[in-house]
Amino acid sequence: MQAGLVIGRVTASRKVGSLEGMKLLLLQPTNWEKEPSGDPIVAADCVGAGAGEFVFWVAAREAAFALGGKNLTDTPPVDAAILGIIDGVNLQPWTQDIEPKR
Length: 102
Known about the structure:
Helix content: under 10%
Largest sheet: 5 strands, mixed, barrel
Shape: globular
Radius of gyration: 15 Å
Structural class: mainly beta
Order of helices and strands: EEEEHE
Strand order of the largest sheet: 1-2-3-5-4
Number of helices: 1
Oligomer: single chain
Strand content: 25-35%
């Protein structure tokens, strides 16, 4: 799972049927200290997140499975899904020198 900040909402007048009724949010990926890391992405919202909230999310196949897909025929076509709203993060001091994997 990865961290991110919700920075907006995406609206679409037309979208594939399996995305009908699904809220799509603009997400800024961050590190666990809320510092931006990478370009914003569109993510399907599974938890009712809103603008400005710090969230955790998954990408790729895990995102589609989070939306209820069990196999290739019923899996929504999403690249990212928000799975939770973060209330707080407790980082240990020794972790501050660890370089993130890219």
